[in-house]
TrEMBL record:
Annotated segments matching region Disordered: 25-50
Keywords noted in UniProt: Signal
Compositional bias of kind Polar residues: 29-40
InterPro entries listed in its UniProt record: Bact_solute-bd_prot1 (IPR050490), Bind_CPR0540 (IPR022387), SBP (IPR006059)
Record lineage: Bacteria, Bacillati, Bacillota, Clostridia, Lachnospirales
Name assigned to this protein: Carbohydrate ABC transporter substrate-binding protein, CUT1 family
Top-rank lineage group of the source organism: Bacteria
A UniProt-annotated Pfam family: SBP_bac_1
Signal peptide positions on this chain: 1-21
């Protein structure tokens, strides 16, 4: 995971083209910005014509989009600039580059989002190990005549996901993004004559109908997928200001009526969740939980647009058709939110070839690079690019044109606190709520305790 003041307009402009759920990117809306995160292009851009005999080391996580797109983009970048690329891709990138980094051998460019179990990116953030790349926004995109800042959709460089220190500077470049929400089988709804719930009360009513037919209301791949879900829910119960206070660990925030409403919704949703989910909610078996939607054994699951690629070869019931919706509103006429998750690219502060690395970062926003990425289903937050989308992607990226509001942002970065893993505390505990191993009161107690510790460790 923001100056949310402009994000609704931003995403309205961005996604109006797009139109239209990127983890794990995965990264805000209305007035949702963290104060002080407005990013302005630096007065002096990075050197735009580094020596052509440079070879940069690029390390990129291999996700459902595959590794081939990185090979193609690296080759195209070299052809455009003469800068050679030594590329490393792996599904467990942290394991591949982590040891070398500890020994002082850093890549020049890293594509690795926050929110992963190994938390390598978060570690670098906490250790002030990221290069300030604000000047990249002022650079001209290699091979084009536009500045990077003119290409990136508004709001994406005004989020805590790119500006983690609340200092007005950009340290991470927004990459592949994905509207996140609830995925379901549209074919089943048409067959049953069911309507997608507009409110949580309607959600519970539908859950009772589905239960009578042996279908669970809800499933999730892993508890980590509750990040995007919970962020959107925080917006729904309290709006942008509440979200900002919650994600900066404001004292007493978890005792408010808004927080209790969010806790109540998650607790009730846990009671409607397919009971086999927690046992498969891990990196080895999460596809079994996603399969529940394709088999009509559960109605909804939180996810991002990458799920279509992950499940493209999976069996499914006859008449299956992907459906996608924002979270139901907390009350009739209330706002429904869809979180926008995006991945990040960054340059280590200890990188050897920073000028050339910044050229590579700038090239990520070229039409050429965006086209290569899009062939694999990875969509860049580039103004106007969504006009080229087809099929399911048109439906996914049109969610903001269909009444949903966009949520961006995440919990604020802090100095390391021994024994505290807030993502596990606030999201991972959902497994225990579903299994019955923990009660809501225990969940809230853990959140309050860790939030108090993190508040004292906030990055200044």
């Amino acid at each position: 995971m923001k100056k949310f003041v402009s994000i609704l307009l931003v995403l309205a402009l961005t996604v109006s083209s797009f139109v239209g759920c990127a983890k794990k990117d995965e990264a805000n809306t209305g007035d949702n910005a963290t104060p002080g995160t407005t990013s302005e292009p630096a007065k002096e851009a990075a050197t735009e014509t580094p020596k052509q005999d440079v070879t940069i080391k690029v390390a990129a996580i291999e996700t459902a989009y595959g590794a081939d797109m990185w090979t193609k983009v690296s080759e195209a970048f070299t052809a455009k600039t003469g800068i050679k690329v030594e590329l490393t891709t792996d599904k467990s990138l942290e394991d591949v580059i982590g040891a070398g980094m500890k020994a002082g051998d850093y890549p020049d460019v890293v594509h690795l989002a926050t929110g992963r179990p190994a938390a390598l990116t978060e570690t670098l953030i906490k250790e002030n190990g990221l290069e300030d790349i604000t000047d990249v926004l002022s650079m001209t995109v290699p091979g084009e005549d536009k500045k990077v800042s003119d290409k990136i959709a508004g709001g994406f460089t005004e989020s805590s996901l790119t500006n983690p220190y609340n200092d007005g500077k950009t340290y991470m470049a927004p990459m592949f993004y994905s509207p996140c929400g609830l995925f379901y089988n549209q074919g089943l709804f048409e067959e049953k004559g069911w309507t997608v719930p507009a409110t949580w009360d309607e959600m519970w009513e539908l859950g009772d109908k589905a239960k009578a037919e042996g279908i669970a209301l809800f499933a999730y791949p892993t508890a980590g997928y509750f990040d995007a879900f919970f962020y959107a829910l925080l917006y729904e119960v309290g709006g942008a200001d509440f979200f900002q206070k919650a994600t900066t660990y404001t004292e007493g925030i978890w005792d408010t009526p808004e927080a209790n409403q969010a806790f109540d919704i998650v607790e009730k949703l846990a009671s409607y969740t397919e009971k086999s989910v927690p046992s498969n909610a891990n990196n080895d078996n999460y596809l079994k939980n996603q399969q529940l939607i394709l088999d009509n054994k559960a109605l909804f699951m939180p996810n991002g647009t990458w799920v279509v690629g992950e499940m493209k070869d999976a069996p499914r019931v006859d008449g299956f058709e992907w459906g996608f919706t924002a979270l139901p509103a907390v009350a009739k006429g209330g706002d429904a939110y869809s979180y926008t998750w995006f991945e990040q690219l960054w340059i280590p502060a200890a990188a050897e070839n920073k000028d050339a690395a910044k050229q590579f970062a700038a090239y990520m926003y070229s039409d050429e690079a965006a086209g290569i990425f899009a062939e694999s289903g990875a969509i860049q937050p580039i103004v106007g690019f969504a006009d080229k989308l087809e099929g399911d992607n048109k439906m996914f990226y049109s969610i903001y044109d269909n009444g949903a509001k966009a949520a961006l942002g995440s919990f604020a970065t802090t100095d390391p606190v021994e024994g505290v893993n807030f993502a596990d505390t606030i999201f991972g505990t959902v497994n225990s709520l579903v299994s019955g191993d923990k009660a809501k009161a225990q969940w809230i107690e853990g959140i309050k305790k860790d939030s108090d510790l993190l508040r004292a460790a906030l990055k200044q």
